[in-house]
Amino acid sequence: MLPKKKQKQFNLFFFLFFLAHFFFNLFSLSLPMLKVEVEQKVFVCPGTLQKVLEPTSTHESEHQSGAWCKDPLQAGDRIYVMPWIPYRTDTLTEYASWEDYVAARHTTTYRLPNRVDGTGFVVYDGAVFYNKERTRNIVKYDLRTRIKSGETVINTANYHDTSPYRWGGKTDIDLAVDENGLWVIYATEGNNGRLVVSQLNPYTLRFEGTWETGYDKRSASNAFMVCGVLYVLRSVYVDDDSEAAGNRVDYAFNTNANREEPVSLAFPNPYQFVSSVDYNPRDNQLYVWNNYFVVRYSLEFGPPDPSAGPATSPPLSTTTTVRPTPLTSTASPAATTPLRRAPLTTHPVGAINQLGPDLPPATAPAPSTRRPPAPNLHVSPELFCEPREVRRVQWPATQQGMLVERPCPKGTRGIASFQCLPALGLWNPRGPDLSNCTSPWVNQVAQKIKSGENAANIASELARHTRGSIYAGDVSSSVKLMEQLLDILDAQLQALRPIERESAGKNYNKMHKRERTCKDYIKAVVETVDNLLRPEALESWKDMNATEQVHTATMLLDVLEEGAFLLADNVREPARFLAAKQNVVLEVTVLNTEGNLGKLVSTPSSTNLHDGWPHCQ
Q1: Which element (helix H / strand E) includes 133?
Q2: Entry pTM
Q3: Do 301 and 286 form a contact (C-beta atoms < 8 A)?
Q4: Whether residues 12 and 146 fall in one domain
Q5: Is residue 380 included in any domain, yes or no?
Q6: Sheet of 194-200: strands edge to edge?
Q7: Which CATH number does the domain housing residue 182 bear?
Q8: How many Å apart are CA 581 and CA 501, to the nearest integer?
Q9: Which cysteine-cysteine pairs are annotated as disulfide bonds in the entry (predicted)?
Q10: Strand (E) positions, 303-411?
Q11: What is the separation, in whole angstroms, between the first and last Cα of the chain?
């Protein structure tokens, strides 16, 4: 969504036609982490949440989506605001009070060292915590010194629109604060896309506890923490066809008791586009951004105290600290016959990393390249997968349950892997994983990017390379290279901005060159995407593991979208740009909304699109 008061409107039409098998259930095994019991409660728990009152302190913003909050460890009235602008969210604004915010009198702004994904930021004890764009990383930025003071990664978290909240906005990773401290809310493939909550030490950025829940994250509108209890909101959105779901806090998970708890609380939703919900343990209120409006909700609490008493269910007992290699098949390593499918989670709902208070935090070791079968499989040593040649790689006889690695096919670089499934000694029917197999030109293009050569020229070279035979690693690497090129292009375009002290002729030439460079870049990117989606590339997509497929497809869409926004920022209005290929059509229309717009119609032809791809509009 774009700001309704912005002077430009962008209409982007993407006709990307991916393989249907990209979006199936992913399976991976989660690593039990270690926990240290740390008592850092600052505020007294007000009790169990019983009612959400009508919103107050309403103010209309220029942005439909965003987040705002207070620092609960600061006693003043300062508030922090961060509107969400696709691919442009990198500034936090501080206001001395609510009155100053309404009057648009900011105290200062903070230009963050990275762009931000989603609306999940929080401010806690003088630092802002946020999800770094296109990563699983949580960044801590000190507002007093204006430097990044820490960064950590959630190794298993879905990110960048893989498991966002219902409204989208790349809200995969959401931070929260409550009486117990700092929390991070996300989803993992190991938990089948359901909500996971971890407690994060705000000073060391170490994880102190992790709990898995049974609530699908994509079904949630937002979530927040109170007294160690995760509350999940499901609300109606504008033009939503599922209004019967209503507006309610309809799920709760108590991390203190390690259990789900029944809840059904009405949530007033006057504007019907909730993009963020943050709880402040100092004033026990919710800070919400709802369809251009920033609002505040008072809450009512009552007994019992959810943080009182020991856990009613014992923590999961485990002794391993080695992460198993994720399987790319749909069969479980615990299956005893090839016909039985195991659950998609390796442990029950609840805590997954509580091994006792006497153990220090630990960093998980790197995944093992060969994974022995689980002890309960009763593997017969004589069961092997037979040697065979698949995808121009010779695979030796391999014991069931083992992952074997071999050099990639001749003419490529990297290591390929193939799983001998832990049932009857059969090779993974999806074939080997060639995700790391790349052509030599990938490294050549990467070196040119590092040297800072012209982004449009490098994009053209990438388009030329992808016209020929490509491997699985070439597909994912091409998307990553285009992502890097965006940052280089953005910096190069900044150097072509008009300067007031220069002549009008020179500034005109700069503007013309900026527009031409941007268009050349987009044309090359569209050609590259078309090359990656042609039917001849189908086998290369199949050679990726499931997680890499989904991530690469998502990033490909993001690269196109961000490039289109960059083009719209650098062309004279009104303007219309159309790049049509056999497998992708991209149109960018830039309008000046100050005059009469008339009716905007875009009908890019799809008749030339390859019939082998499913048509999506």
Answers
A1: none
A2: 0.54
A3: no
A4: no
A5: no
A6: 174-178, 181-187, 194-200, 207-216, 350-351
A7: 2.120.10
A8: 42
A9: 45-227
A10: 350-351, 384-385, 388-390, 393-395, 398-399, 403-407
A11: 18
In a shared domain, residues 222 and 277: yes
Q: Which residues pair with 196 in a beta bridge?
A: 186, 212
- Supply 137's token pair: 């990383």
pLDDT score recorded for residue 136: 92
The tokens 């809310």 sit on which residue? 185
What is the distance of C-alpha 122 from the center of its chain?
17
- Overall domain count for the chain: 2
Does some domain include residue 465? Answer: yes
Of 247, 206, 199, 253, residue with least CA distance to 229: 253
What averages of pLDDT result for each successive group of 10 residues across the chain (617 residues)?
Answer: 40 38 32 37 87 92 95 92 91 95 94 93 96 93 90 91 91 96 96 95 92 95 97 88 77 95 94 95 96 96 81 36 33 31 38 42 36 44 84 91 91 91 84 92 90 90 94 92 85 80 83 89 94 93 85 84 84 83 90 65 50 38
Tell me the one-letter amino acid at 326: P
CB atoms within 10 A of CB 144: 8
Residues 6+ apart with CB under 8 A from 107: 78, 94, 95, 96, 100
Residue type, 74: Q
**Rounded to an integer, what distance in angstroms lies between the CA atom of residue 463 and that of residue 579?**
14
- Any residues with CB less than 8 A from the CB of 256 and at least 6 apart, and which? 227, 228, 229, 306, 307, 308, 309, 311
What is the reported pLDDT for 494?
79
